[in-house]
Design a protein that fits this description.
171 residues; mainly beta; Immunoglobulin-like; five-stranded antiparallel beta sheet; four-stranded antiparallel beta sheet; 8% helix
Length: 171
């Protein structure tokens, strides 16, 4: 008796299709991974510092990210938030609106899970440019995300970053 190859494929397909669906909270979470600081130049040839902040995220219901805004939309256009803290006289304080290092608002693009498992996980890199700085500027960021249903994640912090040093900063 010959066993047909199709019959052998059925158990393999069922094993793959029956993987357990992961359950995570609907509220997103974030976790700082690293900050890479390096020397760079802009398109005009001006020297500057650039930093890439990397963080890990999870979202249990998979509704992280925003669609591209149109000109008539009144929906949120920001869903990644950063607070900058600068060391002044030995103490870290949040910078005000007039501080030239204060970051802009950021938008994570629309993300959608594929398949039955609605969990989203991954890492996100944010590039920050420092056009005006002192080599002794010492800072860190608090950051968090908000999903499409308005759930805000935990707040995590980067490690301390000294703009006069290049390299990878981690906790």
């Amino acid at each position: 008796m010959k066993i047909k190859p199709v019959i052998l494929l059925i158990p393999a397909i069922m094993a793959i299709a029956c993987t357990r669906i992961e359950n995570l909270p609907d509220t997103p979470s974030v976790e700082f991974r690293s900050f890479r600081l390096f020397d760079s130049t802009d398109i005009l040839g001006n020297n500057l510092k650039a930093g890439v902040m990397t963080f890990y995220f999870e979202d249990g219901d998979g509704d992280l990210g925003l669609a591209d805004p149109d000109s008539t939309s009144t929906a949120d256009t920001t869903n990644l938030f950063l607070k900058l803290f600068r060391k002044t006289n030995g103490t870290f304080t949040e910078v005000g609106d007039g501080d030239f290092l204060k970051p802009s608002s950021y938008r994570i693009p629309y993300l959608e899970p594929i398949g039955q498992n609605h969990v989203l996980k991954g890492t996100i890199d944010i590039t920050l440019l420092y056009f005006i700085y002192k080599d002794t500027d010492t800072l860190y960021y608090d950051f968090w995300v908000k999903d499409r249903k308005g759930h805000e994640s935990n707040i995590d912090s980067t490690c301390v970053i000294v703009l006069g040093k290049t390299g990878i900063f981690t906790r």
